[in-house]
Amino acid sequence: MTFKENARLDTSQVRSGGGGGRRSGGGGGMAAGGGIGGIILLVLYLIFGGNLGGGGGGAGGGGAAGADSWNFNAAEVGAEGEGVSDDFSHCQTGADANENRDCLVVGTVNSVQAFWTSAWSEYQPAQTVIFSGTVQTGCGAANSQVGPFYCPLDEQVYIDVSFFDQLEQMGADGGSLSQMYVIGHEYGHHVQNLNGVLGRAQQDPQGPESGAVRIELQADCYAGVWVAHADGTRLGQEDQAILEPVTQKQIDSALTAAEAVGDDRIQEQMQGRVTPENWTHGSSEQRQKWFMTGYESGDPNACNTFTGDLG
Ligand SMILES: [Zn+2]
């Protein structure tokens, strides 16, 4: 989606974190690098993931969410380079969000949270941490290799924007909504945490009809619900809307992302065969279907993935 050029952004909803271990100031800093095997992953809710086998990376701890064996080169994700600026003062307007990935995240977080705040009286805002390389979280240390995630223990979303490059390599078309969908999905997990269903993923972590898959498809659906209402979102009553109306082309773009992160698609690429018994997020077709269910209904109540056929 396109941000309105003059829309005001609220940078207080994001903060920077991590930085490839370069932030050693106050002690307690974590070592730079440190392969995925050395990472403690407790309960992360990822945009993609699961036990992909192959790759050999070995999942740290074999926790419920499963560390990914999605071993792309750490250098590619900016473990050392890039870095994240310590503030987001360059993200003031919608024009900034249309130009810059950090600012796109800021503006998307603003819109997603404005939607949930207006749609659900019990919604409580959650910060997004934009990091580079590695980051300490309430769920343990993590690095970019796991992709964007939500940590229910500190109730924050984490993203290294270099993931958007990875998403394109996985098949997304690189359009703005293919990226914004990721944020919508992760905030879907925050909503699930607030309403108490998120734990179902851990109770039943794997398989085509598992609690994990149902949780993930619901988060996709919630992303679609947000998109349906996104053009009406604004920071305050006095503010103009943050976003222009969504276009069909942008919806198609989101669908390329949903397809790219489907378990069957990733398994096919990583291990050369599809093993539904290891699914944690659902197939490409399911992820697209539930995103569209949310978008077409615009109703969170339509996102009931816990009863009936997942499609
Ligand atoms: Zn997820």
Automatic annotation (TrEMBL):
Residue ranges for the region (Disordered) are: 1-27
State where composition is biased (Gly residues): 16-27
Pfam families recorded for this chain? Zn_peptidase (PF04228)
Q: What is its main location?
A: membrane
Note the coiled coil stretches, chain numbering: none
Q: Which UniProt keywords apply?
A: Membrane, Transmembrane, Transmembrane helix
Superkingdom of this entry's organism?
Bacteria
How does the UniProt record describe the way this protein sits in the membrane? Single-pass membrane protein
Membrane-traversing stretches = 30-48
What name appears for this protein in its UniProt entry? Neutral zinc metallopeptidase
Q: Which SUPFAM superfamilies does the entry link to? A: Metalloproteases ('zincins'), catalytic domain
Q: Where does the UniProt annotation locate this protein?
A: Membrane
